[in-house]
Amino acid sequence: RHRAPATPTARRGRVPGCRAADGARTSYPDALLALRLPGDAFNAYLTSRLQLEEARLASEVDGRVRRQVQAELARLAEFEDDRDGREADALQRHIVDEILTLKCPREGCRQAYDDFEGCAALVCSRCRDPPCHFCGWCLHDCGRDAHAHVRTCPHKPAGTDAYYPRPRAVFDDHWKRRKAARIAEAMEAARPAVRARVCRALRVQLDEVGYGAQ
């Protein structure tokens, strides 16, 4: 049976001797070489063996370090994936709860509402002592009466009714643009991978307000 020749590294720098009965190459023991070799020759032999052993150990250490680094990189990559998911979930909740869902502006209430009819001077159905009066165009908390603010609201498009959200198409477009702008601001602060996840998860809602269509 053919055997590959032993390399100096495999022999760990030892001097090859005779073959054993099974064909394996043996090495002369250091004690025998110390008896048979001149002192300088034996010292040179030991120095060479030491250098080979140091190289072997360095190679083993490099291999272990390389495997450890690769394992750590894999762990960090997995953690990064989890980080993207956590950040995307948080951003998605913020967009849905704080931007797409209109709410009473008063801290401590934040009652959500879907739509309203009539005057844009709104009154929160949940707030008490006193109830929150706020503007349907910009959600400004006006205290006890929102009519004066609604009449001159700086966010209200030109040509609309003094108090009512008319034309309704203008009012709806106004809120789509406001929501899209706030979403863009929130997205801008997120990393690209997080933005991509949120865009996939909220594709329908983002399309409805025209986000990304400008």
Q: Identify the overall geometry.
A: rod-shaped
Cα(first) to Cα(last) distance is 76 Å
- Which stretches are poorly predicted, pLDDT < 50 over at least 5 residues? 1-10
Mean pLDDT: 84
Helical fraction: 40-55%
Most strands sheet? 2 strands, antiparallel
What is the structural class?
Answer: mainly alpha
Provide the spatial order of strands within the biggest beta sheet. 1-2
Characterise the protein shown here.
With 214 residues, this protein is mainly alpha-helical. It has a domain at 108-164. 55% of the residues lie in helices and 6% in strands. It is built from seven helices and four strands, in the order αββααββαααα. The strands form two sheets. It has a two-stranded antiparallel sheet. α3 packs antiparallel against α5 (168-188) and α3 (39-100) crosses α6. The model is unreliable at 1-10 (pLDDT under 50).
Quick rundown:
By secondary structure, this protein is mainly alpha-helical. The chain contains seven helices and four strands; from the N terminus they run αββααββαααα. The chain has a two-stranded antiparallel ribbon. A two-stranded antiparallel ribbon has the order 3-4.
